[in-house]
Amino acid sequence: MISFTVRMRFKPEDRDEIHEALRALAEASRKEPGCATYIPHSVESDPDTVVIYEQYRDAAGLEAHRASAHFKKHAVGCLYQRMLERVMENLSAVA
To answer: How would DSSP label each residue in 11-71?
Structure first.
């Protein structure tokens, strides 16, 4: 299992567009056979920061996600174009 978080910060004026892109990306990503979990969150103390928790069954599932049309449209075409900063953290399960 491959697990990680992606934290991105955006401008306040982009919030509605970002949330719409996240809803569309999450809906499509959850239908991928290799995707186990895809949950975008807004940070309560900072509504312009988003954290996405993602899990894929294996490297092939993650590669398929990144090659998908919905990833290219919503992540690359919207989120990546508007983010002010991005931090990715790979996770290792302890239990």
So the answer is: -GGGHHHHHHHHHHHHHHHTTSTTEEEEEEEEETTEEEEEEEEEEESSHHHHHHHHHSHHI
Q: How many domains does the chain have?
A: 1
- pLDDT tens per residue, range 1-58: 999 999 999 999 999 999 999 999 999 999 999 999 999 999 999 999 999 999 999 9
Domain that holds residue 7: 2-91
Q: What is the CATH number of the domain that holds 54?
A: 3.30.70.100
Which pLDDT band holds residue 70 (cuts at 50, 70, 90)? Answer: very high
